[in-house]
Amino acid sequence: MALTVSDLPMIYGLLANSVSSDVNVLKPAEDALVQLESRPGFCSCLMEVITAKDLASQTDVRLMASVYFKNSVNRYWRNRRDSTGLSNDEKLHLRQKLLSHLREENHQIARTLAVLISKMARIDYPKEWPHLLSVLAQELRSADTLTSHRIFLILFRILKELSTKRLTSDQRTFSEIASQFFDYSWDLWLTDLQKILHGFFLLAQNSPELHQDDMYLICERWFLCSKIIRQLIVSGFQSDSKSLQEVQPVKKVCPVMLNAVQSFLPYYSSFQEKHPKFLEFLKKSCIKLMKISIAFQQRHPYSFGDQNVIRPVVYFCLNKITNPEPDVLSFEGFLIQCMVMMKSVLECKEYKPFLTGRVMDDNWVSLQDVKKNVSSVVAAFLASLLPSERVVLLCNILIRRYFVLTAGDVEEWYQNPESFYHEQDSILWSERLRPCAEALYIVLFENNSQVGPVVVSILQEAMNGCPSSVTEINPQLLLKDAAYGAAAYVYYELSNYLSFKDWFSGALSVELTNDNPNMRIIHRKVALILGQWVSEIKDDTRRPVYCALIKLLQEGDLCVRLAASRSLYFHIEDANFSEQDFSDLLPVCWDSCFKLVEDVQEFDSKVQVLNTISSLIGRITEVIPYANKLVMFFHKAWDESSGESLLQIQLLTALKNFVAALGYQSSICYNLLMPILQSVINANSPDELLEDSMLLWEATLTHAIAMVPQLLGFFPCLVEILDRSFDYLKVAASIIEGYIVLGGLEFLNMHAQTLSKLLDLVIGNVSDKGLLSILPLVDVLVQCFPAEVPQLISTTVQKLIVICLSRGDDHDPSKTAVKTSSAAILARILVMNTNYLAQLTSDPSLLAHLQKAGISSEESILLCLVDVWLDKVSKWFLHQKFVFSWSNNDSLLLSLMPSVIKYLPWLHHVYNGDSVDWNTVYKALRGGERKNHNCIYKSERKIGDVVEERWLVDEEFEQEHIGNIDVSKCEEGEGFVLLDVDDYNKNEDDYAEVDEDSGGCEYVDNVIYTQRKTFALALSIILTLRMSQVLDKLEQILSVCTSVILGGTEELTEEESSSDNMQSSKMDVPSKELRRRQIKFSDPINQIPLESSLKDNLQTCSALHGELFNTAMSKIHPSSFAQLKRALNMP
Predict the structure, then answer these.
(1) Are the beta carbons of 641 and 648 closer than 8 angstroms?
(2) Start and end of every Importin N-terminal domain (predicted)?
(3) DSSP assignment string, 995-1025
């Protein structure tokens, strides 16, 4: 039911209670308001509370009403499926009411109303609220100072919101707003600027005529107008680097804004003493105007590159950086923006000369040519602005003035070294003056080759002026610190002028011998240098550098120790890290790192040191001697990290590396590991810990030598995790595999129902990619427990049958792979538990499941599966590569199945150069129109280069079909043509490729040998069925079975062979990997002789069907029959 005016007292009472300090009053009020916010009329009641004149003094209640109003607009203004939203009539009423209440006196309420109006405008403008901006502009003409300020506040919020919309139509609308609104806003900005300058003059004269409150409102209004102009120019015009259209407002605005800054700065000193409020406005205005200019330069570099714009800006910034007035020197925020502007200009790619050429005598001018011309002009102009002597001067000033620590910096360091470290070395470079100067210096160095010798000369001067024995903090020491920093930041270029080996042995290592507390300043920079120059440290210097870093880790100053920790991390991660040189330093290194974690307080510090520890664990091979120390450290660190998820993530990563480093001796840390795992893999664990928790769980199982009871008890947690999300299904699959191969029958007995539930949860509810990670596990389960598992996972098996009998996988590689894997699992079940599958295929629940999936067939389900098995193996053989090669003696190297021999006559014509309709070829071989030329052969490669499955062809039959081809010169063996298959193992890409975009190429099943043999065994069992339809498929079944027999077994892949070599020394250790390989090599499928099975089942089939069997055998093609005799060694 809708709320009305009569409900206002209730609403007001609830709002008043919601600002109460009494929790017993506040909580019920908040709950009641939450219940009311979705009811129609709620926002209208809030609007009445906000605008009520008699409640003007009730600021807290009105503010709370505005907050609930804003939240309701966010939730219900846009009509959604799950909520009715606000009615159009109420929306119209609220829009009108808001525009009639522009003169809100409370600034917080006004700001909240501006935000909610902008949220409405994002949805309603321009369709539902077309006159919004025009009404605001009209109100602005006759408004007083306060009202005009509020209107500017609303306009800024609206424009900011609309500028973030990314649809083309929305961007076009904003461009129209910019073109219509810019001139009006600019005129207001100029008018207010004159008022402000006049007011500043009166303030400086201490004139009583000035009304400071009104003046400050004008200042704030002008400041909002500045932000509006920025929004209009940045978002309302396409970047000129793309459009190459000059943006006139940039050329109009930038010089005037620069003049405004120059007009404001002289008042800086006079406002410091008497007018702190206006001083703050002056500071934020100068910074904002510089930021706006930087935004214009980055958005519209070519328009900003006009000489009338860029010249005064660059000159101004250079002058303020190199020769600032005393007051400006203390104005760090402004100097930062000057440096940011210079950095942005110097590294702007649009101002770099283009290195590409163009065609001679080409009259057509491309967009790239226009950019090249503009860039050349700007680049030449910048070169004239920054000649060599000015670059050298700027470099000197940056190092000697801005890099040097001040007395305040030194005091801050001594008071809180950890905080100082993060502020100087880890903070965003554009927020502090020194990091900003360093960023500008790096860009200057990259763009000017003459800077290198200057830096080396400053470095030499600083080292000569301050020997390593100095202990007093004096200007020479601080200059050396600055010079060391300058050398550290540009190691990649400075190495051309400076030998690190000589520098380290002659100066840096000597610095570390001075243990005076004041030398912490230099030691910190030495640690920085050792980390930055890691790529220049050669073998003979590496060991001394490691020793130096360990020494720095043991110093008393936290700032130095943290710098050393970070540099040590760089060395550990370096590809040339030498464990041999570092091994004897490990005990001291561990102790130093552990102590540093204890001593630091800030989160960032702990994470940094943990990264170093984790990286070191991952790089060294001998962790066992330090295992007890690491266990104690991790135990204490985990206890202290309670409630800090980000820190726990780092600890979980380090623990995973620790478990991997311990390898098959990881059980020594189980007392630490099991409680941690138990705490992070339960349903109550934070989501952000889930990924790292599962990776640690996986690592624990991977390196376990046996399934311990605690690990076994964790398995049900996996169901809870997957019930929350399938995001980590691949890791979950590895975990499940670990339980299967390590837990064996004990695992199955304890968690049979849980495992069934998990598989049922996943299969049918995840993508094909997810299924491909789970189906191999089902196959292993059936292999290990053929009697128990099929009945246990009956629902899952039914889903696999549905997958196999579904259509539409021919053009989707993932679906084809899923169907192949599912069919192989069902075939294995038939081979290893024949009675179960036969019973399941006649189960009414399966029939219902198939009907629900839209699958119907007149044949029995088992015979439908036979068709799938036949299709998978036949398709694999058919799509194997075949080679036609002509040598000078006309030898023919052939390898093909009997089913394609009939195509040989016209294939021969291809080699003779006769004209062939390639679509006919494609239809013959692929059974459809050719969609893409590359689907059959690359470029213009002849079909004779295509490789098909090697085969043995009856010589007489081959002569009959090939005609005039002389096969007598082919290699022969026992009455058959033995085919040369030297090219059999060539890269598949040499002959055929699947075009993912064509959609017309059939995906070739990647059926491995074990799957082919499983299919063949299952098909041979089908011969024992008392179904006459089996005889209709007899020739196909025999062809597939004999093809598998004659195809032989597969050897180990190269990857498996190399894995055997690498792990041969570990094979005697019980482990998941050993058990997995044992399962693979003891697969019953490999133990069952297919020849004997086929021979026995053929006899059974003959006994079952009698004369019908003989008739079916007589219809078999001669080549297929010959193949059968060879496979079964029949006379």
Answers:
(1) yes
(2) 29-104
(3) -TTT--SPPPP---HHHHHHHHHHHHHHTTS
Helices 716-724 + 690-702 axis angle, to 10: 150
Coil, strand or helix at 87: coil
Distances (CA, A) of 662 to 617, 627, 628: 9, 8, 12
pLDDT of residue 984: 32
What the block records as the tokens of 211 is 């009304």
Single-letter code of the amino acid located at 811: H
* pLDDT tens-place string over residues 681-713: 887 778 888 899 999 999 999 999 889 999 999
**Which amino acid, one-letter code, is at 469?**
S
pLDDT tier at 860, thresholds 50, 70, 90: confident
pLDDT tens-digit series, residues 659-687:
999 988 999 999 999 999 999 988 777 88
Q: What is the DSSP string of 764-781?
A: TTS-HHHHHHHHHHHHHH
Q: Is the distance from CB of 820 to CB of 1006 less than 8 angstroms?
A: yes
Task: From residue 957, give the alpha-carbon distance in Å to each of 197, 902, 953, 962.
Answer: 105, 11, 7, 9
Find all residues with CB under 8 Å of 862, minimum gap 6, and list them. 837, 838, 841, 1022, 1025
Mean pLDDT of 613-630: 91
Amino acid letter for position 52: A
Q: How many CB atoms lie within 10 A of CB 813?
A: 15
Residue 543 burial class via C-beta count within 10 angstroms: exposed 0-12, middle 13-18, buried 19 and up:
middle
Question: pTM score, two decimals?
Answer: 0.76
Tokens of 1000: 């017309």
Quick count: other Cβ atoms within 10 Å of Cβ 1061?
Answer: 9
Q: Where are the alpha helices (DSSP H) in 205-275?
A: 212-236, 240-243, 248-264, 268-274
Q: What is the C-alpha to C-alpha distance for residues 252 and 190, in angstroms, rounded to an integer?
A: 12
What distance in Å separates the CA atoms of residue 557 and residue 414, rounded to the nearest whole number? 9
Query: What ranges make up the beta strands (E) of 865-1003?
Result: 953-954, 972-973, 976-977
Q: Which two tokens stand for residue 48?
A: 């009445």
* Residue 967 pLDDT level (bands cut at 50, 70, 90): very low
Picking from 684, 688, 699, the residue whose alpha carbon sits closest to that of residue 654 is 699
Q: Which two tokens stand for residue 248?
A: 């006139």
Q: Phi and psi dihedrals of 928, rounded to 5?
A: 180, 175
Q: Does the structure show a pLDDT above 90 at 197? A: yes
| Inter-residue contact 863 to 1029 (CB < 8 Å) | yes
- Phi, psi of 80, rounded to the nearest 5 degrees: -125, 165
Q: How far is CA 1016 from CA 423, 874, 1012, in A?
A: 70, 11, 6
- Cα 904 from Cα 316, distance rounded (Å): 83
Q: Quick one: angle between helices 716-724 and 729-762, nearest 10?
A: 90
Measured CA to CA, the distance from residue 517 to residue 1121 in angstroms comes to 94
DSSP string, 279-333: HHHHHHHHHHHHHHHHHHHHH-HHHHTSHHHHHHHHHHHHHHHHS--HHHHT-HH
Please report which helix (H) or strand (E) contains residue 188, including its range. Answer: helix 168-204
First to last CA, the chain: 92
Count the Cβ atoms, other than its own, within 10 Å of residue 85: 16
Average pLDDT of the residues in 1021-1044: 88
The string of pLDDT tens digits covering residues 169-183 is: 999 999 999 998 999
